[in-house]
Amino acid sequence: EEGFQPTPYVEGNPFTADTVLPSLLKRLVPPSVLSEVDEDLQRFGDVVLTKLRPLSARAEPARLVQYNQWGQRVDDLQTSEGWRGLKAALQEEGMIGIFYERKYKEYSRVYGFAKILLAVGDTQVMFCPLSMTDGCSRVLELMGTPELKRDVIPRLTSRDPNIAFTAGQWMTERPGGSDVSQTETIATPIPNITSPYGPTYTINGFKWFSSATDSDVALALARTGPVSAGSRGLSLFLIPLRRPLFRGPEESAPPALTNNIRIHRLKNKIGTKVLPTAELELNGSEAYLIGPLNQGVKSITPVLNITRMYSAISSVGYIRKALTIATAYSKARTVSSGEQLLKDNPLHVSVLAKVNLLYRALTHFTFSAVALLGKVECGVASEEEELRLRMLTPAAKAFAAHYSSIAMEECMAALGGMGYMEETGIGRLIDDGLVEKVWEGTVSVLSLDIVRATSKRGVVEAFLKWANGVLSACPPPLQTKLSSPISVIRESLPLISAAYKAPVSPLATRPALFLF
Length: 516
Ligand code: MFK
Ligand code: FAD
Fold this sequence. Notes:
The protein is of the alpha+beta class. Among the domains are: about 165-295, Butyryl-CoA Dehydrogenase, subunit A, domain 2 (Beta Barrel), CATH 2.40.110; about 300-515, Up-down Bundle (Butyryl-CoA Dehydrogenase, subunit A, domain 3). It is about 45% helix and about 15% strand. It has helices at about 20-30, 30-55, 80-90, 95-100, 110-120, 125-145, 145-150, 155, 295-330, 345-375, 385-415, 425-435, 445-455, 460-470, 485-500, 505-510, and strands spanning about 65, 75-80, 165-170, 185-195, 200-210, 215-225, 235-240, 260-265, 280-290, 335, 340. The strands form three sheets. Strands 3, 4, 5, 6, 7, 8 and 9 form a seven-stranded mixed sheet that branches. Helix 2 packs antiparallel against helix 3, helix 9 runs antiparallel to helix 10 and helix 11 packs across helix 12 (about 425-435). The chain starts with 20 loop residues before the first helix and ends in a 7-residue tail after the last helix. Bound molecules: decanoyl-CoA and flavin-adenine dinucleotide. Belongs to the acyl-CoA dehydrogenase family.
């Protein structure tokens, strides 16, 4: 009880404490939109502190009850109150809604992703199911029947948690997740039945990873062509997890999955423990074909590209949270015989500055892709911008995932022993953030995707034109002319390392643009 008492640190409102978002938003959003968005983000910063954080603290890993007391198979997935509360709170905040209401037109993506950046460290990976819900909405917007657009999109994008749906994505199977060509799940057409939602099939197979197991629908790949056709024999299906999909308002969703889906087991993961990732057996599940037959991989790519954007922003959001804690601690903890706060110690500040620089670089980099996504979805992007987005998406996701854990470990150590304690939450952030290197494409698979993207005519030219334009606007020491995407990477490395040594300044953040 006696002796030195450590001073608790205060994290503060994540928006007003943020060192990057205000200037980033000024750069990307016109003043008329900025004033409204700015006000909402300040309010939302308080919501993160007062509502989302307490809910997150009450979120527990889900429990799976496979059999009831009569020996019947029930597969009752019991999620925690905190998890359900987080989902509802984020739906009410318009996470998904903002992106389809498009109140701020092409700037809606920047606005919504700014909210994600602020919330991600305090929401227990809830943006995983929400990202797939977003991706599913986009696929249905692009390829759904008029009835799907009428009935399902409004649910997926709803701000009312009582009627809102979430969606999962079932691609990965035991023979391969990066490479889906050996998919074993089979789709069989039901003769003479066509639902208004599309040609109706039954699905049989085993899905090895299902993270949004508490969702209402899932987009899944299943084989409709010969095994010899590999991934070109797969089609995309919308699968309801329960039937009927729509119930009266008085009936809440039954916990068990009722579309002939069994939950084999819940995954035992390093992190993302609250997220109910499961293995699923599908034994004659009803499903609707989405998009053209045997073009399932291509049809699901809008989901991949949207969830990859969420992944990139999540990685950056984890750094934001860890850095905020480390910065707050530096204002509370003294060193040098108690004479000096850490924030005034040059050696310590240089450590924080390094992470701060990385955070700035990655935020500007990832949001440049987010801004392009908004433009493409609103039909106002040029062809060159569309091609650039195609390349930037896997690059942003891979870079952010790679650097995030490095940055978070620095932040953890910046609190000394306190950083290694569970209560700071940095440990959970690191464990959760690690998965960004794996799901939605590993770093190697994404680098192959960049190669795939650049093999399309015009992509490299569009990219170099843009990169050289950015470079020519930089101060002389950073000016250089690039001739290939490889040279962008090669030339950027010395610039980035030079920037690391420099004090944090607007100039030092510029090399972010050279990352890609
Ligand atoms: C909070 C964080 C948020 C994130 C959370 C989400 C939860 C996590 C859930 C998951 O992890 S879900 C599973 C995600 N799985 C993957 O990401 C799989 C990784 N593997 C790949 O991405 C492979 O590249 C792929 C499976 C797509 C390769 O399949 P294929 O069949 O060998 O691809 P192919 O034949 O090269 O391409 C088929 C078509 O799609 C081509 O078009 P064309 O038919 O016109 O030639 C390609 O150009 C096109 N394509 C492929 N990837 C594309 C794309 N188009 C646009 N964007 C892409 N990314
Ligand atoms: P593999 O593809 O076997 O990869 C193994 C290694 O091989 C990796 O290092 C990879 O980089 C490397 N590799 C693969 N191909 C190549 C290549 N051509 N060249 C060089 N190296 C290569 N999936 C879903 O569909 N839905 C979900 O909801 C979902 N949730 C998930 C939740 C969690 C927590 C995790 C960890 C995964 C989830 N996944 C989900 C699965 C995830 O998308 C896959 O694990 C991922 O795509 C990798 O596939 P894999 O596990 O089969 O690994």
